[in-house]
Specification:
- With 459 residues, the protein is mostly helical.
- Among the domains are: 1-28 and 42-157, Tetratricopeptide repeat domain (Serine Threonine Protein Phosphatase 5, Tetratricopeptide repeat, Alpha Horseshoe); 336-440, Serine Threonine Protein Phosphatase 5, Tetratricopeptide repeat (Alpha Horseshoe).
- Helix content is 74%, strand content 0%.
- The chain has 22 helices and no strands.
- Helix 15 runs antiparallel to helix 16 (306-318).
- The longest helix is centred in the C-terminal third of the chain and has 50 residues, at 409-458.
- The termini are far apart.
């Protein structure tokens, strides 16, 4: 899913939207007692702006934000004298109006102006700094957001969980992962110690991403195990945990977690199915690996492509199921634009002394071509296949085609010489036999002639 702009990304919204609206609502303009800073005298609004500010609040409650902004700017530009506290409250309200109307840059500017007046009590100042780092975070001003965040932490003794995870994300977005990790860990500690806090998945996602960035695989494995227990239908966590286990040299556990995901119907992507099949083969479970590929090909989760049929064949070869392997390799050969798989089938058939099949496969390999330097081997095996079927002239031609090769040339020349001699001897033998047959025929004819002459003399 694509979002119209980065401000509408759900992770950003989840961590920040609630903060903004909480700061916008419930403004009060009466006296502000300050228990933490007794040196600062309690502040109240000047009488001549008290009623206009209440009118502004009413306009905001009615969601008439243009009117609220107009009244605030009128107050700010009025000729009547304004105390620093009055201006600070006006800027604070302008910031709220801008935030509600999604003008976050202007909202941040107004918040800065309110803080620069240094006339609000500590609680209001703290709230404005919280608003400020949230607004800067919202508009991707991460350096400014971090600056405001640091100030806020000096004012807040017990930061809530939402701010801790927001701080973690702000630092992460600024590539300060070590600091991000600190706040994410504090957030997780607070989350696990308070059963009343609703667990949010994006908090786990953020923590895991930071842990992986820092290559803290031990921490990541624990977080992912917890995520799987909380969201057992999320395939991504199984895949990530399997990868993390590999990094921790816990390969068998990696296979186990992928197997659980597969049995739960969570492994559907081609790459994930192939990874599982490869791991099964690695741990000497080739039948299971073959079954994974077979099911994937059957339900179309694995496309009907050459490389996948080759992988299927490899699983059966690993299981020593030669016939099944050959069938799968035949599918790969038909889908391939080269003859390499036919050549492989030819080699297998030669090893089994199946000369009829080997001749057929080698011929198909040569017909399809593109053998990447193995053409001479194909000619050599074709020569052998024809020789052992007593097709000596065809075999001689095949060996002649590879007799100049660097790899098979010597063997091909040997067979070429041997077959040439064999054919020559066979030809000589045939000639001798022919000559003997001719002599015998001549003798038989001579005997017949003598018998004929004898009969004539008697007559």
């Amino acid at each position: 899913m694509k979002f119209k702009n980065k401000l509408t990304h759900p992770l950003r919204l989840t961590l920040t939207l609630a903060l903004i609206w909480a700061l916008v609502a419930g403004q009060s303009y009466a006296q502000e007692p300050d228990k933490k800073r007794p040196s600062r005298r309690s502040q109240v609004l000047s009488m001549h702006i008290y009623k206009p500010m209440n009118a502004v609040q009413k306009a905001m409650q009615n969601e008439d934000y243009p009117l609220a902004q107009e009244k605030l700017l009128t107050l700010l530009n009025s000729t009547k004298r304004l105390k620093p506290y009055d201006k600070a409250k006006i800027y604070e309200m302008l910031s709220s109006v801008s935030a509600v109307t999604e003008d976050y840059t202007q909202a941040a500017n107004y918040t800065e102006q309110a803080l620069q007046l240094d006339s609000l009590n500590q609680e209001s100042t703290k709230q404005l700094y919280r608003r400020l780092f949230t607004l800067y975070f919202f508009i991707d001003e991460n350096v400014k957001s971090i600056k405001a965040l640091k100030t806020w932490f000096t004012l807040e003794e017990n930061p809530d969980i939402h701010v801790l995870f927001t701080a973690a994300q702000i630092y992460a977005l600024n590539d300060q992962y070590e600091q991000a990790f600190v706040y994410a860990e504090q957030g997780m500690t607070k989350l696990h110690s308070d059963s009343s806090t609703k667990i949010r998945e994006n908090w786990y996602q953020l923590s895991i991403s930071i842990q992986l960035k820092l290559a803290n695989y031990q921490k990541a494995s624990v977080s992912l195990e917890q995520a799987i227990s909380l969201w057992p239908n999320k395939s991504a966590y199984f895949q990530q945990l399997a990868a993390v286990y590999q990094q921790l040299d816990r390969s068998q556990e990696s296979l186990a977690i992928l197997s659980i995901a597969y049995q739960s119907g969570l492994v559907k992507r081609t790459s994930e199915l192939r990874q599982l099949a490869n791991q099964y083969r690695f741990f000497e479970y080739p039948y299971k690996g073959a079954e994974v590929i077979a099911e994937g090909l059957s339900n179309k989760h694995i496309p009907n492509e050459e490389e996948h049929w080759e992988e299927y064949a490899n699983s059966w070869l690993h299981a020593k199921e030669w016939e099944r392997a050959n069938q799968a390799l035949g599918h790969a050969a038909n889908l391939s634009d080269s003859g390499k798989h036919w050549l492989r089938l030819c080699q297998t058939s030669v090893q089994e002394d199946d000369w009829i099949s080997s001749r057929d496969y080698c011929q198909k390999a040569l017909d399809k071509g593109r053998l990447a330097g193995e053409q001479n081997m194909a000619w050599y095996l074709l020569g052998l296949s024809n020789y052992y079927q007593d097709h000596l002239p065809v075999a001689l031609k095949a060996f002649d085609n590879c007799s100049d090769a660097k790899d098979t040339g010597q063997d091909c020349q040997h067979w070429k010489h041997f077959i040439t001699q064999t054919l020559q001897e066979h030809q000589e033998h045939q000639q001798r036999q022919k000559d003997m047959d001719a002599i015998q025929e001549q003798r038989r004819q001579q005997q017949q002639d003598k018998m004929g002459e004898a009969l004539l003399l008697k007559g």
